[in-house]
C-alpha cells in the first residue's frame, strides 16, 4: 500500500534519532517516517506544500533541543492546529514535572516515554498511539492490520462500522 | 486517484455524452437520456472515481433533472404533450427521490438498528459465546461452530461487522498457533466465507438482497421475509457445509485442541432488556407474516420506532448507522426504474432473440455473470447493473417459465454473494487478507471452488425446488 | 541644729544618692544622738559570710565601711557574684520585709563594718516619733531605687550581648554552610574523578574495539568494489535529518526501488559517495547500502565513545583537586570546562566567548570553576534557560577581568544590596531551589584568590553583568 500518514520524529542528536528510526523500521511499510533534527525544520515541513497529501499521525519529540523545547513545540503544534488529530509522544530523559504537566494540559500529550527506552516499549507505545489515531480519525483500519494489532483494529471495525457491506 | 479511477472518470463522462452524439436506432429520446445516466453510473460504480454511494445519489439527481417532470428537459410540458412528442410520460420526481424510503430500504433500516443495538450491548459476542459451547474443542468442530455462528449473525448483521467481530474471537488463538499450521489459513478464510454465505439467509443479510426484493416487487411479486428465508436458508445450509468441508480438507490442522477465550457477559441493564424484547418481537413478527399479513418491510418500523423511542439507540447511535449503504441501494433501485420507464432495458434486451434460449441457460448465465463481475466490484452494483436486463428478459419468458423475473432476480442476487475469490471481492475478504495469514492464492483457490459449488447448488435448487414455489 | 534640720528634710534622699557613705554616717550619728539604743556594729573580715542564701532573715544590714558581695548559686552549683554592696547601702532588705527566704548570700569582700539591726530595733526606729524614722524610711527607699537602676542597666547590657550573640550565630551558620558546601564539592570532585576513571577505561576499550573491527571487517568479506562503502559509512555523518523536503522527495523519486530506510541512507550520503552509489548495478547497490549502514553504525559508536571520553575529560579537569596553594591556571580553560559540563542547561542559550590572550593566574581550579558555574547557572535562571550569554575575558591594569553578560531580566535595584548575603535567593521554593549560598560563596572564593566580584547591568545584552577580576601573575618564562 502507499502510505499516506506520517510519523514525525524530532531529536537533535542524529545518533539517537537514528536509533529511534531503526526501532520503528517495521512500521515503514505503512507509514512514512521522517526524522528531523530541529523543531524549525518540522515547522517548515508541516507548512510546506507536501503537507496537503501527507498527514501526520504521530509526533515523537525529544524535550531538550536547541531552539524550542519539545514541550513548547507540542503546545505550538496543538495551538496552531498542525496536529490535525495526530497523537503526541514525548521521548525524553529530561522533562521535569512542570514541563510534563504543561505538555499534557496545553499540548494534549498522549504518551511520555523516558530515555533510555527499550525497542519493545517504544514499539508498544507507538502501536497503541497509532491505533488510537486510526480509531479517532475515522480511518479504514483494514490496511493496517498487518502492522498494528489486528484484534484492536477488528474491534474498531465492529464498533464504528466505517467499512460496510457493499 | 489511481489510474483505474481516472479511467473510470473519463469513461463515465464519455459514456454520459455518447448517446447525445450518436443516435441509436430504435431507442426513444428518453431512452437515450436514460442510457446516458446508465453508462455514467455503470463506469462510476465499477471503477469508483467517486464513492459508490455518491454515484447512487448522482443517479437520483440526474434522474430528477433529466427524466422527471420538474427537470429542465420535460418541465413546462404536460404528460400528453411529452407522450406525443417523445412517446414518454415524464417521471414523477417524488417516486425517484422516494427510492430513498423504498419499503425495502425501511426493512434494511430496521435491520441496521437491530444490528447496531446488538453491537452496542455486546449481544453479538454473547451469542457467539453461547453458540460456540456445543462445538467442543476439536479444530474440525470449532471451525464448523465458528462458521455457523458467523452465518447466523451475518444473516441479521452486516457481513463486515460480523467478520470483524469474529476476528477478535479467533485472532488471539491464531497468534498462539504454529506458524506452519495450515489450519490458520482455513480459520482465517472460514469467517469471511461464512459471513458472505450467511448474508444470503435473510433479505436484510446483505445489500444485493434489497435489489432483488425491489426488482421482484416491480415485476409484481413481493418477496416476504419468511418467503426469502424459506427459499434461501436450505441453500445457505448446504453451501455452508460444503464450504466447511472444503476449507477443512484443504487446511488440515496440526493442533489437536482449540480453546477460545471469551469473557463477555450478558448486559442486563434495562435498555439491554428492552433491546432483547424488541429484537425478539420483531423477529417473531417477521417470521409470522403469513399469519398476520403485515409486510415485513413495515414491521421493520417497529424496531426503528421503539429503539429510538426508548432511547435504546440515541441520536449519536443513529448518526453512526451505515446510511451510505441505504443510499447505494436506493440509487440502484432508481436506476432500475429509469431503465424500465424509458424502455431502455427493453431496447437493450431486444438486441438478442432471448426466446430461443432455454430458461435454465438464461438462469445459469445471469448467475454466472453476477458471480464473476461482483468479484471485481461491489455486489450491490453488480446486481444493480444486471437486474433491469434480467427482469425484462424474465418478463418475455413469462411467469410460468423457470426464468421468471423473481427467480432470475434471486439468481443474480445470490450469485453476487457467492463472489469471494479476491480480497477486493467483499470487505470480509479484505479483513481476512489484512490479518496477513492468508495469501491471495489461498483465497482465490478456495473462493473459486466455493463459487462453483454455489452456482451448481443454485441451479439444482431452481430446478428441483424454487421453480415449484415461485 | 542646722545639721539636724538638714537631716530631717527630704533632701536626705538626694544626699544619700549623691554620697551614700556620708549619708549613712550621718544617719548613724543621728541614731546615737537620738538616745535610742544603737544597734550592733559588726566587724567582718574578708570572706566572712554575713547572710546565707535561701534562709529566713530577721535582720537588716547596713554597710558602713568596706565592701560586701552578694552571690547566688546556680543550678550546676557554681557561685556567681550578683552585685556589690558599697558603704551606705543596705542588704537583706527584701527578705527582711517580705519574710521570704533570702535570694543571695552576702560575703564580705573587704574588711568591713556592718550595722546589723534586729527587727525590734528597726521597728523601734520606725515607730518612735524621733527624727530617725523618716530618715530610715527614706534610706530604704533610696536603696530600692538604687537596685532598680542596676536592674535597668543590666537588662540593657543583656540585650546588647544578645544582639551580638545573634549576629555571631548567623555568621557561624553561614560559615558552617560554606564549609559543608566546600566539603561536598571536594567529595564530589573525588567521586567524579573516580567514576571518570572507571568510565574512561571501557570507553577506551570500546573505541579500540571499533577501530579494530573496522580494520578486520573488510578482510572477512569477499572483496568487491562495494566494500568501500563500509569505509564511506564511517567517514561522514548522515545529512538525512537536516535535508530539506525537496531533497527528501527527490531521493524518493530517484530511487523508487529502495525502501524508506534505504532511501534515508542514500539521502545521508555526500555528493561523492552518492555518485559512486548511483553507478552501481542493483545487486551491488543493496550490498553497498548494507555496508554503508554498518559503517554508519560504527561511526555512531565511535562518535558516541569519543563524546563520552571528552565529557569525562571535562568532568575530571572541572573537579580537579589542587593542593592548598593552587597552581598556575588559564582562566579560559576553567570557563570552557564549565560550559562543557553545563552544555545540557545551555542547549537553548546562545553562548559567545570573547577573549584576549591573558596571563595565567594562581588559583585552585575547582574553586574557580564553582564561581563560573554559579554565575552561569544564575544567568540561566534569570533568562529562563533561553537567551544569550556572553563571556568576555580581558586584561586591564594587570588584572584579569571576566565579564559575564546575560540577556535575562537584570538585577532588581532592591536586590542589589542583598546579592551577597548568605541565604539570599530569588528562586521561589517551588522551582529548583538552591542553598542561596551561591553568590556569598562565590565572593569568598574570589576573595580567596585576591579578586573581586561586582554585579551590574549589562551594556551589551540588556540583562545582568557580573564582573570578576583577579591579579595576573607574572608569566613563567
Topology of chain A as a string of helices (H) and strands (E): EHEHEHEHEHH
For the biggest β-sheet of chain C, the strand order reads 10-12-13-15-14
Compute the CA-based radius of gyration of chain A. 16 Å
The helix count of chain A comes to: 6
Task: Tell me how many strands of chain A there are.
Answer: 5
- Unreliable sequence segments of chain C: 1-7, 429-435
Helix content of chain C: 40-55%
Largest sheet of chain C: 5 strands, mixed
Could you tell me the strand content of chain C as a percent range?
Answer: 15-25%
The percentage of residues in β strands of chain A lies in 15-25%
Terminal Cα span of chain A = 22 Å
Global outline of chain C: rod-shaped
What is the overall shape of chain A? globular
The level of helicity of chain A is 40-55%
* Quaternary structure type: heterotrimer
Strand arrangement, largest sheet of chain A?
2-1-3-4-5
What are the low-pLDDT stretches of chain A, counting only 5+ consecutive residues below 50?
Answer: none
What value does the Rg of chain C take, in angstroms?
Answer: 45 Å
- What is the CA-CA span between the terminal residues of chain C? 100 Å
Secondary-structure topology with pairs:
The complex is a heterotrimer of chains A (166), B (470) and C (477).
Chain A: E1 5-10, H1 14-23, E2 32-36, H2 39-47, E3 55-61, H3 70-79, E4 87-92, H4 97-105, E5 111-114, H5 119-136, H6 150-160
Parallel strand pairs in A: 1-2, 1-3, 3-4, 4-5
Helix pairs in contact in A: 3-4
Chain B: H1 3-21, H2 29-47, H3 52-67, H4 79-86, H5 93-98, H6 103-120, H7 123-132, H8 139-156, H9 159-176, H10 183-198, H11 207-218, H12 225-250, H13 270-287, H14 289-292, H15 296-299, H16 301-309, H17 315-319, H18 323-341, H19 344-349, H20 359-373, H21 379-397, H22 405-417, H23 427-434, H24 440-469
Helix pairs in contact in B: 1-2, 2-3, 3-18, 6-11, 6-16, 7-8, 8-9, 8-10, 8-12, 9-10, 9-23, 10-12, 10-23, 11-18, 11-21, 11-22, 12-24, 13-16, 18-21, 20-21, 20-22, 20-24, 21-22, 22-24
Chain C: H1 2-8, H2 11-18, H3 20-34, E1 40-44, E2 49-51, E3 59-65, E4 68-73, E5 79-85, E6 90-91, H4 93-98, E7 105-108, E8 112-118, H5 119-127, H6 132-220, H7 228-235, H8 245-254, H9 260-268, H10 271-278, H11 282-318, E9 327-329, H12 331-341, E10 349-355, E11 361-363, H13 365-382, E12 387-396, E13 399-406, H14 413-416, H15 438-448, E14 452-457, E15 464-471
Helix pairs in contact in C: 2-3, 2-6, 3-6, 6-11, 7-11, 8-9, 11-12, 12-13, 13-15
Amino acid at each position: 500500500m502507499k502510505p499516506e500518514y506520517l510519523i514525525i520524529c524530532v531529536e537533535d542528536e542524529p545518533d539517537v534519532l537514528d536509533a529511534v528510526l531503526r526501532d520503528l523500521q517495521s512500521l515503514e511499510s505503512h507509514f512514512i517516517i521522517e526524522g528531523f533534527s530541529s523543531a524549525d525544520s518540522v515547522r517548515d515541513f508541516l507548512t510546506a506544500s507536501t503537507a496537503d497529501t501527507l498527514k501526520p499521525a504521530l509526533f515523537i519529540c525529544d524535550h531538550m533541543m536547541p531552539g524550542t523545547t519539545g514541550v513548547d513545540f507540542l503546545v505550538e503544534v496543538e495551538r496552531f492546529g498542525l496536529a490535525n488529530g495526530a497523537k503526541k509522544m514525548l521521548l525524553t530523559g529530561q522533562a521535569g514535572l512542570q514541563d510534563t504537566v504543561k505538555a499534557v494540559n496545553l499540548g494534549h500529550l498522549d504518551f511520555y516515554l523516558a530515555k533510555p527506552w527499550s525497542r519493545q516499549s517504544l514499539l508498544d507505545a507507538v502501536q497503541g498511539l497509532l491505533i488510537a489515531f486510526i480509531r479517532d480519525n475515522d480511518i479504514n483500519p483494514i490496511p493496517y492490520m498487518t502492522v498494528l494489532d489486528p484484534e484492536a483494529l477488528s474491534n474498531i471495525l465492529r464498533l464504528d462500522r466505517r467499512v460496510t457491506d457493499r | 486517484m489511481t489510474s483505474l479511477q481516472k479511467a473510470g472518470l473519463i469513461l463515465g463522462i464519455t459514456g454520459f455524452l455518447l448517446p447525445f452524439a450518436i443516435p441509436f436506432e430504435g431507442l426513444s429520446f428518453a431512452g437515450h437520456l436514460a442510457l446516458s445516466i446508465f453508462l455514467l453510473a455503470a463506469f462510476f460504480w465499477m471503477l469508483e472515481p467517486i464513492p459508490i454511494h455518491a454515484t447512487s445519489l448522482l443517479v437520483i439527481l440526474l434522474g430528477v433533472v433529466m427524466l422527471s417532470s420538474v427537470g429542465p428537459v420535460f418541465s413546462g410540458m404536460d404528460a400528453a404533450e411529452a407522450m406525443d412528442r417523445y412517446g414518454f410520460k415524464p417521471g414523477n420526481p417524488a417516486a425517484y427521490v422516494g427510492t430513498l424510503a423504498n419499503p425495502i430500504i425501511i426493512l434494511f433500516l430496521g435491520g441496521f438498528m437491530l444490528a447496531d443495538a446488538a453491537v452496542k450491548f455486546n449481544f453479538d459476542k454473547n451469542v457467539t459465546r453461547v453458540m460456540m459451547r456445543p462445538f467442543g474443542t476439536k479444530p474440525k468442530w470449532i471451525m464448523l461452530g465458528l462458521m455457523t455462528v458467523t452465518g447466523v449473525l451475518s444473516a441479521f448483521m452486516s457481513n463486515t461487522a460480523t467478520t470483524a467481530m469474529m476476528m477478535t474471537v479467533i485472532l488471539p488463538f491464531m497468534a498462539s498457533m504454529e506458524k506452519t499450521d495450515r489450519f490458520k489459513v482455513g480459520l482465517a478464510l472460514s469467517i469471511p466465507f461464512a459471513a458472505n454465505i450467511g448474508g444470503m439467509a435473510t433479505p436484510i443479510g446483505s445489500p444485493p438482497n434489497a435489489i432483488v426484493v425491489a426488482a421482484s416487487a416491480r415485476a409484481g411479486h413481493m418477496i416476504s421475509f419468511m418467503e426469502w428465508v424459506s427459499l434461501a436458508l436450505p441453500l445457505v445450509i448446504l453451501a455452508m457445509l460444503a464450504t466447511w468441508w472444503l476449507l477443512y480438507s484443504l487446511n488440515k490442522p496440526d493442533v489437536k485442541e482449540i480453546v477460545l477465550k471469551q469473557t463477555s457477559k450478558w448486559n442486563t441493564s434495562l435498555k439491554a432488556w428492552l433491546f432483547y424484547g424488541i429484537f425478539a418481537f420483531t423477529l417473531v413478527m417477521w417470521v409470522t407474516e403469513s399469519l398476520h399479513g403485515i409486510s415485513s418491510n413495515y414491521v421493520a418500523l417497529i424496531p426503528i420506532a421503539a429503539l429510538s423511542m426508548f432511547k435504546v439507540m440515541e441520536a449519536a447511535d443513529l448518526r453512526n448507522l451505515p446510511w451510505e449503504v441505504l443510499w447505494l441501494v436506493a440509487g440502484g433501485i432508481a436506476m432500475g426504474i429509469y431503465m424500465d420507464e424509458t424502455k431502455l432495458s427493453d431496447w437493450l434486451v431486444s438486441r438478442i432473440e432471448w426466446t430461443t434460449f432455454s430458461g435454465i441457460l438464461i438462469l445459469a448465465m445471469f448467475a454466472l455473470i453476477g458471480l464473476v463481475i461482483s468479484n471485481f466490484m461491489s455486489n450491490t452494483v453488480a446486481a444493480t447493473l444486471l437486474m433491469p436486463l434480467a427482469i425484462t428478459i424474465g418478463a418475455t419468458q413469462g411467469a410460468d417459465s423457470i426464468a421468471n423475473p423473481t427467480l432470475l432476480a434471486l439468481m443474480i442476487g445470490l450469485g453476487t454473494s457467492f463472489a469471494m475469490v479476491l480480497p477486493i471481492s467483499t470487505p470480509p475478504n479484505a479483513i481476512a487478507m489484512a490479518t496477513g495469514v492468508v495469501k491471495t492464492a489461498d483465497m482465490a483457490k478456495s473462493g473459486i471452488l466455493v463459487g462453483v459449488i454455489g452456482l451448481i447448488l443454485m441451479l439444482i435448487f431452481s430446478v428441483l425446488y424454487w421453480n415449484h414455489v415461485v | 541644729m542646722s545639721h539636724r534640720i538638714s537631716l530631717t528634710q527630704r533632701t536626705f534622699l538626694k544626699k544619700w544618692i549623691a554620697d551614700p557613705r556620708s549619708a549613712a554616717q550621718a544617719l548613724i550619728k543621728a541614731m546615737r544622738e537620738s538616745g535610742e539604743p544603737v544597734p550592733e556594729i559588726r566587724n567582718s573580715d574578708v570572706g566572712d559570710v554575713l547572710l546565707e542564701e535561701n534562709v529566713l532573715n530577721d535582720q537588716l544590714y547596713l554597710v558602713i565601711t568596706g565592701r560586701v558581695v552578694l552571690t547566688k548559686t546556680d543550678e550546676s552549683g557554681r557561685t556567681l557574684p550578683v552585685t556589690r554592696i558599697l558603704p551606705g547601702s543596705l542588704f537583706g532588705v527584701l527578705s527582711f520585709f517580705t519574710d521570704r527566704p533570702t535570694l543571695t548570700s552576702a560575703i564580705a569582700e573587704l574588711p568591713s563594718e556592718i550595722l546589723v539591726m534586729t527587727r525590734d530595733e528597726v521597728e523601734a526606729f520606725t515607730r518612735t516619733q524621733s527624727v530617725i524614722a523618716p530618715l530610715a524610711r527614706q534610706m530604704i527607699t533610696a536603696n530600692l531605687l538604687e537596685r532598680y537602676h542596676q536592674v535597668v542597666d543590666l537588662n540593657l547590657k543583656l540585650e546588647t550581648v544578645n544582639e551580638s550573640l545573634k549576629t555571631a550565630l548567623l555568621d557561624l551558620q553561614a560559615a558552617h554552610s560554606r564549609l559543608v558546601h566546600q566539603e561536598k564539592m571536594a567529595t564530589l570532585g573525588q567521586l567524579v574523578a573516580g567514576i571518570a576513571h572507571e568510565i574512561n577505561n571501557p570507553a577506551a576499550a570500546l573505541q579500540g574495539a571499533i577501530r579494530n573491527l573496522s580494520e578486520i571487517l573488510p578482510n572477512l568479506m569477499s572483496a568487491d568494489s562495494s566494500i568501500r562503502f563500509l569505509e564511506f559509512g564511517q567517514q561522514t555523518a548522515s545529512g538525512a535529518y537536516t535535508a530539506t523536503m525537496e531533497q527528501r522527495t527527490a531521493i524518493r523519486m530517484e530511487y523508487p526501488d529502495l525502501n524508506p530506510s534505504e532511501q534515508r541512507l542514500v539521502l545521508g550520503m555526500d555528493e561523492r559517495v552518492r555518485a559512486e552509489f548511483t553507478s552501481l548495478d542493483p545487486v551491488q547497490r543493496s550490498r553497498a547500502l548494507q555496508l554503508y549502514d554498518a559503517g554508519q553504525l560504527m561511526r555512531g559508536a565511535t562518535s558516541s565513545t569519543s563524546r563520552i571520553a571528552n565529557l569525562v575529560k571535562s568532568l575530571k579537569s572541572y573537579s580537579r583537586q589542587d593542593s592548598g596553594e593552587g597552581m598556575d591556571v588559564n582562566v579560559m580553560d576553567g570557563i570552557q570546562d564549565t560550559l562543557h559540563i553545563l552544555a545540557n542547561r545551555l542547549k537553548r542559550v546562545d553562548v559567545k566567548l570573547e577573549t584576549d590572550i591573558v596571563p595565567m593566574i594562581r588559583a585552585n581550579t575547582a574553586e574557580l570553576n564553582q564561581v563560573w558555574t554559579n554565575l552561569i547557572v544564575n544567568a540561566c535562571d534569570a533568562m529562563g534557560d533561553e537567551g544569550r550569554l556572553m563571556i568576555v575575558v580581558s586584561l586591564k591594569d594587570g588584572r584579569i577581568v571576566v565579564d559575564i553578560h546575560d540577556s535575562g531580566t537584570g538585577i532588581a535595584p532592591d536586590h542589589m544590596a542583598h546579592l551577597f548575603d548568605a541565604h539570599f535567593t530569588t528562586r521561589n521554593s517551588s522551582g529548583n531551589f538552591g542553598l542561596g549560598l551561591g553568590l556569598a560563596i562565590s565572593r569568598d572564593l574570589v576573595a580567596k584568590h585576591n579578586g573581586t566580584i561586582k554585579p551590574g547591568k549589562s551594556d551589551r545584552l540588556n540583562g545582568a553583568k557580573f564582573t570578576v577580576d583577579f591579579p595576573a601573575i607574572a608569566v613563567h618564562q
